[in-house]
Amino acid sequence: MIGLLGRKIKKVVIIEPKSADRQVYGLFKIPRGVVLLATILKTLGYEVKVYCEDFAQIDWDDVLSADVVCLSLLTATAKRGYAVAKEVRVREIRAGAPYKPIIMGGVHPTFATEEALVNSADFVVRHEGDKTLPELLEAIEGKRELESVLGIAFFRDNQVIKTAERPFLTNEELDELPFPDKTLVVNWEEITTDLVITSRGCPFNCNFCSVTAMFGRKFRIRSVKRVLDELEVLSVNAGGKRIVVFIGDDNFTAKEKRAVEIGDGIIERGLNLSMIIQARTNTSEATLAALKRAGVGRVCVGLESVSDEALKESNKRQEVKDIINFIERCDRVGVKIHGMFVSGFDNDTPRTIRGIVKFAKKYRRILETIQITILTPFPGTILYDLMVSGGDIVFHDWDLYNTHTVVHLPKKMKPSELQRETYLAMKRFYSVYGIFISLLKLNKTSIVISLFGWTEARRWRWGKGFRSHMRILRRMERRGLFTQNVLPDTTS
C-alpha cells in the first residue's frame, strides 16, 4: 500500500468492460455513469479517456501510459473486468512499465468488495463515486490521508479496510455536477442514444433490484432548469437535428409534477427530441399525455409478471389490474410500451410464462416490444440474501448472470423447464408475424428491438452457450443434484 501512495497522477483511463453475452441494452450504444465520472476528473485537470468495450477495443499501449486505471463493473461484466485488470498487470511486467493503481467501482464491487480486491483491485469505490473518486486520487497523490476518503475499501495487512459510508449526494450537489462530455469516450461517434440522468434513488424496494441498496430509497432530483439546460446543450450540439435521448432514471415519473414541468420546458425551448423514459404503472394519463407532447414516444416499464402472486412476492406494489389500466392509458395518449417481464418467481410454472406471451400478444398494439428475463439474484439485492440463506443459488459464475440464464432453483418447475419456457416465450412473441407487424409500423426502435428479439431467440436455441447450459441443467436433474441440494462448484 505504501508504494501506491505519494505519486503524481496526470492521466486516468476508465474502462467499461463488455458482458460475456449480448443483451437488449447492447443494441443502443450508451455508456453508463463512467462518462460523468470522466468529466468530473477532466474539470479537475486530469487527462481522461474512456473505453466502453461494447463499441471500442482497448488500446493497451494507451492503458499502460496511464497513471491510474479505473474499471466500472456490473455483475455480468465482473469476470471480464477482473480479466482486464489481470491483463494490465501482465502487460506491465512484460513492458517493464510502472505498477499503476487499479480502482474498481460500480454496483458489483460495491457489494462484492473483497472479491474485487482479490481480483487485482487496489481500491474499491463503493456506491456513488462522484466525490469519492476525486478524493481517492488525491489520497494516492499524497494530498490527503487515505482513511479520510469516505466510501472506499482496500487491503491492509491482509485485512479488508472499509472507510465509513459516504452520504448520498443531495439535490443541490446533484445540480452542481457537470454535464457528461461524451467526447471523452473512444469512438464516441458510435454512441447512438444520449443518456440523461435526472434523478437517483428509488422509493420502492423490489426484492430483485439493487437500485435502493446502491443509491438509496430517497428520491433525489436535479432541478428542472438544470435538466432542461443539459437537454438543450445536447440539442444544440446536434445542430437542431432530432436526437434520441434515453432518460435513465429508474422512475422518471416518481414526481409527476416535476416530470410534466420538464416536458413543458422542452416544448417551450423548442427542443427536437425523441425520448425514451422508464416509469411505473401508476403514472397518470395526464402526465403521459404531457410527456407525449414533449417527445416521449416509448416508456419502458417493469411489468414483471401477469401473476398477482409473483408481483406480491417481488414486493412490486402493483397488481395485474394496475398493469392493464396503465396499458389502456398509454393507448389513449399514443405512447408505446416496452414491457419488461421476469420469469422464475417461486409460484411461477410453465403455464405462468406462457401466460406472459398470451397477455403481451393481446395488447400488442401498444405493448409493441417486450423482454422476458429470468429471475437473477444479483449481489446487493434482497433476493440474493434470501437465496443464499435458502441454498437456492446453483451457479456462481458471474458470466451467467446475464438475466437470460437460469442460475437458481425455481420452486414449481425444473431449472431446464424455466430455461426452455423463457426461450420459447420470446420466440413466440418475436415470430415472423410479429416482425412483419413492426415493419408495417415503420417505427425504428420497434423494428430494431423486434429484430433483436427474433434473432436472439434463435441464437439462444442454437448457440453453444444455450445448448451447453441446457445439457448441464438436465444432467444435474437426472443425477438428482437439485433435489438433494448437492451443488457442484461452478465458479471456475
Descriptive tags:
single chain, 492 residues, alpha/beta, Rossmann fold, pyruvate-formate lyase- activating enzyme, 2 domains, seven-stranded mixed β-sheet, six-stranded parallel β-sheet, 19 helices
Would you tell me the structural class of the helices and strands? alpha/beta
Low-confidence stretches: 484-492
Helical percentage: 40-55%
Number of distinct helices: 19
CATH class of the largest domain: Alpha Beta
Biggest sheet features: 7 strands, mixed
Question: How big a fraction of the residues is strand?
Answer: 15-25%
* Quaternary structure of the protein: single chain
Question: Radius of gyration from the CA trace?
Answer: 23 Å
State the CATH topology of the largest domain: pyruvate-formate lyase- activating enzyme
How does CATH name the architecture of the largest domain? Alpha-Beta Horseshoe
Strand order, biggest sheet? 2-1-3-4-5-6-7
Name of the CATH homologous superfamily of the largest domain: tm_1862 like domain
Question: Total strand count, please?
Answer: 15
Mass-distribution shape: globular
- How many structural domains does the protein architecture include? 2
The separation of the N and C termini measures 29 Å
Mean pLDDT: 91
